[in-house]
Amino acid sequence: MAEPDDFVVTPYEVRGKIDYTRLREQFGTEEVTAQVLARIHHLAGGELHPLLARGIYYSHRDLVALLDGYANGRPFFLYSGRGPSGPLHTSHLVPFDLCVWFQRRLGIPMYIQITDDEKFWAKGGLTREETAQWGLENLYDILALGFDPKRTHVFFDSRSISALYPLAIRVARKITFSNVKAVFGFTPSTNIGLVFYTALQSVPCFWPSWAEGRAVPCLVPCGIDQDPHFRLTRDIAEGLGYPKPALLHSQMVPGLLGEGVMSTTGGRTDDALYLNDPPAVVERKLRAAFTGGRATVEEQRRLGATPEICSIWALWRTRFAESEAKFQEITRTCRSGELLCGDCKGELIERVHKFYEQHAAARDRVKSWAESTIVTSAPKPI
Amino acid sequence: MAEPDDFVVTPYEVRGKIDYTRLREQFGTEEVTAQVLARIHHLAGGELHPLLARGIYYSHRDLVALLDGYANGRPFFLYSGRGPSGPLHTSHLVPFDLCVWFQRRLGIPMYIQITDDEKFWAKGGLTREETAQWGLENLYDILALGFDPKRTHVFFDSRSISALYPLAIRVARKITFSNVKAVFGFTPSTNIGLVFYTALQSVPCFWPSWAEGRAVPCLVPCGIDQDPHFRLTRDIAEGLGYPKPALLHSQMVPGLLGEGVMSTTGGRTDDALYLNDPPAVVERKLRAAFTGGRATVEEQRRLGATPEICSIWALWRTRFAESEAKFQEITRTCRSGELLCGDCKGELIERVHKFYEQHAAARDRVKSWAESTIVTSAPKPI
After folding, report:
1. Which residues of B are less than 8 Å from A181 in CB distance?
2. Alpha helix (H) ranges present in chain B?
3. Contact (Cβ atoms closer than 8 angstroms) between residue B87 and residue B137
4. How far apart are CA B316 and CA B52, in angstroms?
5. Do A172 and B193 touch (CB under 8 A)?
6. Which of A191, B69, B117, B259 is deepest in the core (most CB within 10 A)?
7. How much is the pLDDT for B4?
8. CB-based contact B186 A170, cutoff 8 Å
9. Residue A283 Cα, gap to closest chain B Cα (Å)
10. Interchain pair A188, B177: CB under 8 A
11. Shortest Cα distance from A121 to chain B (angstroms)?
12. Which of A181, A193, A199 shows the shortest C-beta gap to B199?
């Protein structure tokens, strides 16, 4: 039996081989069961996003009540965010891909937070000019995934502070240094910007309710590592008179180097596919990526490979196998030994090239309206 | 010899009988000497404000260098603030009275910060509506003291956050929880708003330099109790590329009840004259105020009274004896026994009534332009 400490998952650290079932039990969240998926499938008009169908979104808080409300004429809104410390990589798309799908199927509003202040506070090596510029670049990438300009609202922290601050003042009074210390592992040498920051990250959960003067439910799709943050948000929600945000948690996408979670922290840039990687770099990274294959072709033909540990299979699973049939075929032929890693990588490289081309074009198109989505004023004076 | 702990002076607590000389030595500040006063007198065109002439502003940091700069064609600006937790009382006017005088004599800009966010964080019993409303009421009172609409700029925190936040982001990265814990005595149960707040209070010291892209010196007249706060500001100034603010420290005004410093914390509303007290309340409070008089008229005639411990004398000294001759006469006749406390109070009551009348009229006049002084946008994007 595994020891409780062979993996660590917090908003500022993910380490070790994660047992997702045990993590869900540790955090005390609910399972995304077949019944929950059937419910979403029904409400979404007979469709299920691959990230749901393939079990990547596997855990939740209060999702059933949110869906009940939706079924009874009480629409919710979506909220997700991005800390702009550099270019996006493909695993950053996991929450936004799901949000685009929800927005399109249900016609609901999306709120995106770009935390250029928080990244400046969290990453000593970045200048303000850099976090602001990455914020804009990241925003273009996110919007280009297919968000509806009319239903998408962006809090770009340094530029939206007038809109956020009046509510952040109320939120901040409810949270102590002890609270953030417990959740984020802050120490006395943490800067006071980062200490304050969680107030601003909670605000979007409540903002539409504040603006509209009625309870508007919120759904936050996020990595399971972000759950502790939103537990804090949920704890203070009722005291402020707002509904607790519902959460939908994804597993972490493994990195190309085959260790834990996709992350380029510490300069490990080959662990991830950046959206601004040129085709030759994409090809080099994928050719070098860790797979679940065997030592020799002969052995693989005979024994088959192991998709569950393969970084290439993870990419097919989270984004690049668009149809269920395609995904099942890759998984089956990988396991049986019919599909060899070289061929599988070759096919994925083609898919990624195609996506990057389409994405670059979509990204150019959103630039004409991206600024119009940034919220710059508060709905009420205080 | 007095023990080192028979008085406590921090930004959040003032207690005991303060030995101002020793406090200055503890804090390591410089003395406002006769030479410094002569310098100000000269630069101000042959005039000295009573608060300077009577030794209420008695301590400073870097004031001489600031005056040298001014003499060499390098003007400075003034900065002071107010935490709007209720109506102003007369001791709150000490920094602003001096600033009006400096602004008029030297023609320099004044920046006023109204910290309606901080008071909400610091005082659990106040609502946001209350701190915002008191902020506006207090601002009218402050502007009515005679500030020049063309040279006066107000940071009303919740409304000026767009202007303040870009610089606050940079400031906040330089300050740790340890720093604010040491300065303000914060504990793990302090809310994260208050922890962050010092960043916003430092911003006005640097704002004109940021806006103008050159070093603009700053003078902060404040109670000596606020020195620890601005020490933190001074410590981070150079790392941000801005000049350290110079400070000019006042002694604390004793309360009407004769204990330590004028303060209405804990509901001791009879300790202070509020600017919105009706005439009958002013009269009642002053008639009941603690004096330096003797037990009987006979004794007072014979032995004289003690102005230094008298709350009425403190009011003459800090504001209501407009001429030096008047102030000297009161002091002399009090000490000699010629002036009895009842007569002295009667004369002060007349003066206060007259000031309140003039002030109410001035306050009505500033309402037409007060809003125009509130800064609502940043001079630069980041």
Report:
1. 188
2. 20-27, 34-43, 50-53, 63-71, 93-106, 116-122, 128-143, 157-173, 177-184, 192-212, 227-240, 279-287, 297-303, 311-315, 324-336, 341-366
3. yes
4. 14
5. yes
6. B117
7. 52
8. no
9. 37
10. yes
11. 6
12. A193
Q: What is the pLDDT of residue B1?
A: 41
Q: Which helix (H) or strand (E) holds A210?
A: helix A192-212
Per-residue pLDDT tens digits of chain B, which is 382 residues long: 444 557 777 777 777 788 999 999 999 999 999 999 999 999 999 999 999 999 999 999 999 999 999 999 999 999 999 999 999 999 999 999 999 999 999 999 999 999 999 999 999 899 999 999 999 999 999 999 999 999 999 999 999 999 999 999 999 999 999 999 999 999 999 999 999 999 999 999 999 999 999 999 999 999 999 999 999 999 999 999 999 999 999 999 889 998 777 777 777 788 999 999 999 999 999 999 999 999 999 999 999 999 999 999 999 999 999 999 999 999 999 999 999 999 999 999 999 999 999 999 999 999 999 999 999 999 888 7
Q: Do A162 and B166 touch (CB under 8 A)?
A: no
Best CA proximity match to A70, nearest among A48, A43, A110: A43
Which residues of chain A make contact with B158, given a CB cutoff of 8 A? 165-166, 169, 382
DSSP structure string for B202-242: HHHHHHHHHHHTS---EEEEEEGGGHHHHHHHHHHHHHHT-
CB pairs < 8 Å spanning A and B: 122
pLDDT in tens, A348-381: 999 999 999 999 999 999 999 999 999 999 988 8
Which of A117, A169, A178 is opposite residue B189, by nearest beta carbon?
A178
Which candidate in A131, A177, A181 is best for mutational testing of the B interface (most B CBs within 10 A)?
Answer: A177
Contact present, A198 and B192 (Cβ < 8 Å): yes
Q: HSE (CB half, 13 Å, CA atoms) of B366? A: 25
N- to C-terminal Cα separation, chain A: 54
**A118 vs A84: CA distance, rounded Å:** 9
Parallel/antiparallel/unpaired status of strands B110-114 and B77-82: parallel
Structure tokens at B284: 């009642």
Q: Give the one of A121, A169, A199 whose C-beta lies nearest to B128's C-beta.
A: A169
Q: What is the dihedral of CA B23, B26, B27, B32, to 10 degrees?
A: 60
Give the confidence band of A128 by pLDDT, cuts at 50, 70, 90: very high
Q: Which residues of A touch B129 (CB under 8 A)?
A: 382
Is A1 a residue whose pLDDT tops 60?
no
Which residues of B sit within 8 Å Cβ distance of A? 117, 120-121, 124, 128-129, 132, 158-159, 161-162, 165-166, 169-170, 172-181, 186-193, 195-196, 198-199, 381-382
ipTM here: 0.92
**Dihedral pair phi/psi, residue B242, rounded to 5°:** -120, 155
Structure-token pair, residue A281: 């770099």
DSSP A24: H
B340: number of Cβ within 10 Å: 18
- Cα–Cα distance measured from residue B382 to residue B273, given in angstroms and rounded to the nearest whole number: 43
